[in-house]
Amino acid sequence: MASAVMNRGGGHASALRSSLKNIAQFVIVLMTTLLGLAAVTFFIGRVVPIDPVIAIVGDRAPPQVYERVRQELGLDLPLIQQFWIYLKKAVTGDFGNSVLTTNPVLTDIANAFPATLELATLGTLIGVILGIPLGILAAVKRGSFIDQFVRVLGLAGYSIPIFWLGLMGLLVFYAKLGWVAGPGRIDVTYSYLYTPVTNIVLLDTAMQGQWDAFWDAVSHIILPACLLGYFSLAYISRMTRSFMLNELAQEYVIAARVKGLSEMRVIWRHALRNAAVPLVTVIALSYANLLEGSVLTETIFAWPGLGQYITNSLQNADMNAVLGGTLVIGTAFVLLNLVSDLLYRLLDPRTR
Amino acid sequence: MTGAPLPLASESSGMRAWLLSPEPHSRWQARLGRFYLGWRAFSRNPLAVIGLGIVILLILVAIFADVIAPYSPITGGDLRTERLLPPSETYWLGTDDQARDIFSRIVHGSRVTLFIVVLVALIATPIGLLVGTVSGYLGGWVDTVLMRITDIFLAFPRLILALAFVAALGPGIENAIIAIAITSWPPYARIARAETLMIRNSDFIAAVKLQGASTPRIILGHVVPLCLSSLIVRVTLDMAGIILTAAGLGFLGLGAQPPMPEWGAMVATGRNYLIDQWWVAAMPGIAIFVVSLGFNLLGDGLRDVLDPKAAK
């Protein structure tokens, strides 16, 4: 970044060179991080106390069979060579087969990912739509009731166990009040009314005009989405408040007020526009965090996403599936962080 | 460090003058004076004091769990008549599916929670501190390599990495602690490195170097102590996250194993009786919430006192 600033006056060629250098740096960082992720999952896979050969041949197999399978799996090779093979396979998306479902892990993940995506996206949307206005209000009316409210909301969001809040939500809104549908994505009665295309139920049902099925899917997703949305809101509103306070203390805000601009215009057009830059990063980060939050949420709501897939595989000692899922979530996490970083540079002219 | 200043603050004004003296006669007096000022700033924040109160309460409950808990946390009562009873005068928070008193289990569970938090802090803080200070002080390729490793661990979502480690090591409370510690140190290393970079070029470090101090001596004796205060803030703020991760692992059946009264695992049991016997799941969850809230409030308060730059 610093070199980019210094190269400012160096004309077109050096600007190009510096941005190329930036891109190269990005790629190197991305590559080493992904390589590290693969190394960690590979290492975890090696320390598992389960013998993969016995898992296949059974513990009564004769030694020749055992040895042959061991060689087929490549377990007799040196560790570094094994890692290389693992890497080559991982790059082509081959994480082996899941013991539990017998499908290739990648197929399972591809099936489960849209469900997680649907939930996390809706959760982030709720967090953004409610969290940003709340944060702005809290900053503008500092010390008021709404400011205290946002503070409490944030503190609670950092302190409540998500799985507990989910259970209590089910208890109150599903079991006692009957406002929402229970666990699962859609009722069985509706599940054959549409053909899964994107595997995102809300999209599929809406595009195929199956509105009954759509509303059923909505009543299923609303509670887990609100749950994730709350945690996203807690984070986003707190950060929005802090960014806005920062901007509102700047001189250009005073200048805008002196010019006689309305308070609304000062806040929404001037301060918010500048606060929006770091906010983009925060939103991307909260989206990445929801991928993590979805593990516990999906378990509670029997949501057939990646989180549930990982926990189910865990309970069945299905290491291929666990490590494949971990690697995929880790990669998504890294990419989201990278996107937020890139967006920041794109939106903030000062970093160019 | 939490209990000491309390009596001092209420002592006579002579004591106060001694503490606030602009010309302390000993290093000890100066230190206590700084401490007193810190405590005064801290105690002006009511939320922080509440947080401190909750944490002290947790420690006291954990110490005196045997005295406080009216029943055994492990063995239950009569399975025919005392199972899944609602909260009453005999069983303050009701009983669970094994006819055990939930209140007694929560009281004993405080020990498990405290055990996890303390051990994770004891394992993760030195690792982070060492990696960060060495990386920041030595710079060069050591810095590059260590920071890349740190970034890789930061790249994983915490719970997922802990899940994968527990999957490899096998479920159990010790493995859960190791897994959480492995996922906790990277942010500490980052903070320690940032602090070290600021300290590294100070005059006093140059002076120590001229006196012939070795690199390990400079790092351990001069850099590490100065990194501690911002690290303590960070670790305290992290405690809530550690508790929530541990509870999450327990909830998934990967942390403490039954019959250990771990709060997350207790919520998991209550899940089966959620609709008709809500208290089985609700009560331990409230305990987790209160304790993490306490650590969050305490951490916020400590940050305002120890690290005024970060507070906004």
UniProtKB/TrEMBL annotation, chain A:
Which InterPro entries would you find in this protein's record? Answer: BPD_transp_1_N (IPR045621), MetI-like (IPR000515), MetI-like_sf (IPR035906)
- Annotated Gene Ontology cellular component terms: plasma membrane
- Which CDD domains does this entry report, sorted A to Z? TM_PBP2
Record keywords: Cell membrane, Membrane, Transmembrane, Transmembrane helix, Transport
Compartment annotation: Cell membrane
Q: How does it sit in the membrane?
A: Multi-pass membrane protein
> What's the superkingdom here?
Bacteria
Domain ABC transmembrane type-1: from-to ranges: 113-344
Q: What is its main location?
A: membrane
Q: Where are the transmembrane segments?
A: 23-44, 119-140, 152-175, 217-236, 271-290, 321-344
Q: Give GO terms: molecular function aspect only.
A: dipeptide transmembrane transporter activity
User: What is stated as this protein's family in its record?
Assistant: Belongs to the binding-protein-dependent transport system permease family.
Spell out the protein name for this chain.
Peptide/nickel transport system permease protein
* Organism (species): Microvirga lupini
UniProtKB/TrEMBL annotation, chain B:
Q: Name one GO biological process term.
A: transmembrane transport
Q: Which domain of life is it from?
A: Bacteria
**Spans through the membrane:** 47-69, 112-139, 159-183, 239-258, 278-299
User: Where in or outside the cell is it found?
Assistant: Cell membrane
Membrane topology per the entry is: Multi-pass membrane protein
Tagged with keyword Cytoplasm: no
The record places domain ABC transmembrane type-1 at 110-299
Q: Does the keyword Manganese apply?
A: no
Keywords of the record: Cell membrane, Membrane, Peptide transport, Protein transport, Transmembrane, Transmembrane helix, Transport
| GO cellular component, as recorded | plasma membrane
Report the sequence similarity comment from the record. Answer: Belongs to the binding-protein-dependent transport system permease family.
The name under which this protein is listed is Peptide/nickel transport system permease protein
Q: To which species is this protein native?
A: Microvirga lupini
